[in-house]
Amino acid sequence: MLALLLSTAAFAQDDVQLPEPTPDLADDSSVGPMLENLGTMLEQLEGMGVQVTDIHLGRVKDDGVGVPVPLAPLGAGALVVSGLGDPRRIVDLDLAVTDVHNGRWTDQETDNYPVVQFDSSDGGEFTATVLIAEPTPGATDGFYLLVSGFRTDDPSTVVSASGMVSMLQLASSLAESMSLRFVTGGMSVMTAGHNAEIDLTIPSESGSQCLVMSFGDPSRTKKLLVSVTDKNGNVLATAKGKR
Questions:
Q1: Which of 80, 93, 128, 203 has the smallest count of CB within 10 Å of its CB?
Q2: Is 180 or 86 the better-scoring residue by pLDDT?
Q3: Domain ranges, residue 89
Q4: Tens of pLDDT along 29-85?
């Protein structure tokens, strides 16, 4: 049995205590519109027979460097990595995918929805890098979406990740209702009884208080045990529950 694990992180904008809830954040700081686009992306990819294995949502700065995103190990065959830049802040988003053998595939067309497709003979680990090629006037950063997976011979065998969109919407709405700023989120496929890791890179300037929420696919997961560790392997927090 496969399940889908989603984790999101948000930071308090107050370094001392959680602020009182506010009804709304500025339009360009809310991640809500990007999640609506995520549902459309998943529908299109899964309709083409792509088994989605990874979803990443975060912020990228207009610094000419971009953000490297480790992708879950994929099987051999036809692989697909699709990106989307926040249209409120990004005009042109570029995407590059590299493997451990220095293979490199790119989409540098002038658009906001880069797609990289390639054949991998041995699968393995890949890193995707998203880069703002052109921001909207005055913007210095923006949200990005990254969805990756592999093509299947039979679309009916695809385990849909669409149910996780509502979970991510719930998590982001809860965080933003408490005046927390959404920083990053990720989803991966996990096998029942086995651990799955989601690498969430949190910018050091985000703040001092972090809220991490994890959700399992409601149609396939009853309970989750979650452990949050830092890059040195130190356990920062643990939680167990139905979501």
A1: 203
A2: 86
A3: 2-241
A4: 778 888 888 888 888 899 889 988 888 888 899 999 998 988 765 666 788 899 999
Give the pLDDT score at 122.
65
When divided into structural domains, the chain yields a total of 1
DSSP secondary structure, the chain, as one string:
-EEEEEEEEEEESSSSSPPPP-S---GGG-SHHHHHHHHHHHHHHHHTTEEEEEEEEEEEESSSS-EEEEEEEE-SEEEEEEEEE-TTTEEEEEEEEEETT--EEEE-SSSS--EEEEEESS-EEEEEEEEEEEEPTT--EEEEEEEEEEE-S-GGG----THHHHHHHHHHHHHHHTTEEEEEEEEEEEETTS---------GGG-S-EEEEEEE-TTT-S-EEEEEE-TT--EEEEEEE--
Higher-confidence residue of 13 and 27: namely 27
**Cα–Cα distance for residue pair 197/186, rounded to 1 Å:** 10
**pLDDT for 133-145, tens place per residue?**
999 999 999 989 9
